[in-house]
Amino acid sequence: MMRIDFMGKKYIWFAISGAIILVGMLSLATRGLNLSIDFNSGSRLAISFNRDTTVDEVRDAAGKAGHNDAVVQTIGEGRYQVTLPALNAEEEIAVVSAMDGSIGVNEKSWKSVGPTFGRQVVNSMLKAIIISWLIIIFYVSLRFEYKYAVATVAALVHDLAITVGVYSITGREVTTATVAAVLTILGYSLYDTIIVFDRVRENAPLARRGGYAEMVNESIWEVMARSIITTLLTLMPVVCLLLFGGQTLKDFAFALLVGILSGAYSSIFVAAPLLTLWKERETRFRQVTKGDGKAKAAKAR
Fold this sequence. Notes:
Blueprint: H1 10-30, E1 34-35, E2 42-49, H2 55-64, E3 71-76, E4 79-84, H3 89-102, E5 105-113, H4 115-143, H5 146-170, E6 173-174, H6 176-203, H7 207-210, H8 212-244, H9 247-279, H10 283-300
Parallel strand pairs: 1-6
Antiparallel strand pairs: 2-4, 2-5, 3-4
Helix pairs in contact: 1-5, 1-9, 2-3, 4-5, 4-6, 5-6, 5-9, 6-8, 6-9, 8-9
């Protein structure tokens, strides 16, 4: 069975990750993120009607109430979501009355968010991410060493950047469910990276005989089956949620899907190569590498 030389092709993996992140960051700089009213103040109407209708018809009905900028989306069979600027009680009644007169309202519910709520959500998310990274650095440094911790956090930053970039490129709405999914993603990515690093640590004594990169390659192949099976089993319910869940569950599942795939990739193609680059600079492993080069040169003669 032919085995991929993961560490020998590390610059290819870095280039792939860099290209994806660059495209995502360019999209973020030009298009930004499609933030829900959880982050921007506004009012949101969830509504169903007495007859079949279309997004355009619902938008026209909102326009009759003076809201031509209404954003209308389907959120299930026969249900629509109408996002508007922040409205007072009288304006909400006017919107529903306009839709009732045009189409016939069956059920409705309003959700209004003030300008401070979004800032609170973002601040809480940033605090959670920073605290979790500090705990991760402490834990991994204690269990392994600080070089493993730095590579682990680099992989987490990679996964976060990929997820944010994909959301910007696809234009999917960023909700509080997305924030919850991102925090879940960090935990999954950490788990996958620790599996690889734990085997690397166990096999580290072998690097004195065969070089650090070769040892890391062997360690990855030893856990490859476990990593693939874990990823596939985790993705199965996520895909089901994405296909058959409600709108909130679909938002959560999409972020999980992107993050899990990115986490499975980063543990092998980002974290492990970064660790290898750093460890090969250590004297004991650098000397082994030089010794291998001399041996190969002698055989060539």
